[in-house]
Amino acid sequence: MSNIEKTLTPTLVKKLWVAFVLLVILMGAAYIFTTGYLTNKHNQAITQRVNAKVAEHVIQEKFQNASPFLEDGSVNKELFGDLMHDMMAVNRRIEVYLLNELGEIRYSVVLDHNENEPSKRVSLAPINSFIQTKGNEFIVGDDPLNPNEPKIFSAAPFDINGKKGFIYIILAGKEFQLISDNLLGRYFTKLGIGATLLTMLFAAIIGMLSIWFLTKNLRLITHTVRKFREGDLDIRIENPEKSDIAVFAHSFNEMADSIVGNMDKMKSVDTLRRELIANVSHDLRTPLAILKGYVETLQMKKDSLTEEQKQEYLQITHDNIDKLSNLINQLFDYSKLEAEQIAPIKEPFSITELSHDLIAKFKVLAEQKKISLQLDNPKSNYMVFADVSLVERALQNLIENAIKYTEEGGKVTLSLLKKGKNIEINITDTGTGIPVNEQPFIFDRYKQVDKSTKKQGYGLGLAIVKKIMELHGTTITVLSKPREGSSFVFNLPAYQV
Q1: What is the C-alpha to C-alpha distance for residues 157 and 216, in angstroms, rounded to an integer?
Q2: Distance from C-alpha of 228 to C-alpha of 128, rounded to nearest angstrom
Q3: 329 located within any domain
Q4: Could you give the CA distance from residue 29 to residue 248 in angstroms, rounded to a whole number?
Q5: Does some domain include residue 222?
């Protein structure tokens, strides 16, 4: 047995074999029963066809010179006695009945011994059908000795001296039927044994070929699954659309692609996580070192420092604590966004009012750097349908970023513009700009664009903005040229009042 054949589960093979054997047995039994039934009917039809004219011959031969009735109207028993001797020479198993035109039995010649009394009447419907078809069709009629067992018969009408009736002859009596059933039983026992053995032989051969053929694709798929489980991540089911179980084959290939894709994504995430930890550790180390240095200085030289120096050191300490707090908050927010623990709660709100609030909030910081911060198109009140807190966080990060990278005397503009069913939000600065080759990466986690500068990198700010846009089903794009400034643009759905 090949390795591929071994991959098929034995339980499935056993079930297939059991089902196949049961099917063969049922088919064999049905074949024997059907063959026996049809053969028996065939033999009866032959017997009836051969003896179809017997009743007619009886009337022609016996009633031509003598009447079946005496002058007093009684039955001519002597005539029927002669008829009995003639019948014995032909067939000792037949039954002869004299019927009137209503089907009532006037007399009978029964050579078979039977403890049952014959019935008094015979149904005329089969007799009339037999006469109309001239015995050319297979028809069974009543057996007066066994009313519940219809038998083959021969019948013919007579009309003698004004008396009408039928000669009704049962061609296969009870004893004949017993002998016939016994012989047929023996015949079909032998036939059944021989046919069963022969059928089982061919069934075994056909079954092996059928099971092998039917499970060929399943074995191949099982083999492929095991190879994938053992570490061969590139293996796939070839030509899945040609498989007998194409749905399963396609599902496995899609599952394998998904697993490999997730593994690659996990590797990428792990790599980015390491870079993030390294970058965050670096940025945490700098303010912590500054904090430690100034705190130690305050402790060691507290008596020699002037009040102005103390206030300066405390202010520096306070600023670095803010930096640490902001960094930690960013890291916490980004981790929740990446873990999809934040679901946007969308509602209609005025993006114009939110922009006014943010401009006022960052006005002091911009003035400290002598930067012009303004809102373009402030008179139009635009309504959007989004999560107000997340949009506020995104705008806050973009404005902070723009102020950080804009030189003294520069300009930062937040503009709002209605475009179709959306509101376009654009944050533009006149800062240092972003090199073209760096622009595709600025939304990565903790990507520092210009490593030659001493400025802190973009950190998690833009990465958080990108995640917020993804939660709103939109994207953010950057348009920038070195030394000419940058523009960050995104759209939000306008709220239709």
Answers
A1: 70
A2: 78
A3: yes
A4: 37
A5: no
Tokens of 409: 């005397």
- State the number of CA atoms in the 13 A half-sphere of 43 facing the CB: 12
Question: Of 287, 305, 336, which residue sits at a domain end?
Answer: 336
Stated pTM of the model: 0.47
> Distance (Å, rounded) from C-alpha 194 to C-alpha 190?
6
**Burial degree of 114 (CB within 10 A; 0-12, 13-18, 19+):** middle
Same domain, 328 and 418: no
Residue 446 lies in a domain: yes
| Integer angstrom CA distances of residue 360 from 79, 171, 319, 402 | 137, 119, 21, 15
d(CA 132, CA 120): 24
| Statement to judge: residues 290 and 349 lie in one domain | no
Report the 10 Å Cβ neighbour count for 427: 23
For residues 220 and 238, give the distance between their C-alpha atoms in angstroms, rounded to a whole number.
Answer: 10
3-state SS, residue 20: helix
| Number of domain units in the chain | 3
Give tens-digit pLDDT for 126-138: 999 998 988 888 8
My answer on whether 389 and 319 are in the same domain is no
Tokens encoding 229:
């489980």
Identify the pLDDT of residue 494. 92
DSSP H or E run through 350: strand 347-350
Q: Give the span between the Cα atoms of 435 and 214, in whole angstroms.
A: 62
Q: Are 489 and 479 in contact (CB under 8 A)?
A: yes
Tokens of 304: 């020699």
Are 197 and 83 in contact by the 8 Å Cβ rule? The answer is no
Task: Give which of 24, 10, 4 is closest to 204, Cα–Cα.
Answer: 24
Among 277, 311, 336, give the residue marking a domain's end: 336
Task: Note whether 308 and 353 are same-domain residues.
Answer: no
- Specify burial of residue 381 (Cβ count, 10 A radius: 0-12, 13-18, 19+): exposed
* 329 and 401 part of one domain: no
Amino acid at 260: V
Q: Which of 275-284, 327-336, 435-444, 458-467 has the lowest mean pLDDT?
A: 275-284
Angle between the 216-229 and 246-300 helix axes, to the nearest 10 degrees? 10
**Residue 65 lies in domain:** 52-170
CA 7 vs CA 4, 17, 19, 294, 372: distances in Å: 5, 17, 21, 71, 73
Longest Cα pair distance anywhere in the chain, in angstroms? 168
Strands 163-170 and 95-100: antiparallel
Q: Are residues 323 and 375 both part of a single domain?
A: no
CA–CA gap between residue 10 and residue 216 (Å, rounded): 14
First to last CA, the chain: 74
Q: Extract the tokens encoding 471.
A: 């939660």
- Which tokens go with 48? 């009836």
Per-residue pLDDT reduced to its tens digit, 486-497: 999 999 999 876
Contact between 115 and 135 under an 8 Å Cβ cutoff? The reply is no
Amino acid at 115: E
Alpha-carbon distance of 35 to 192, in angstroms, equals 10
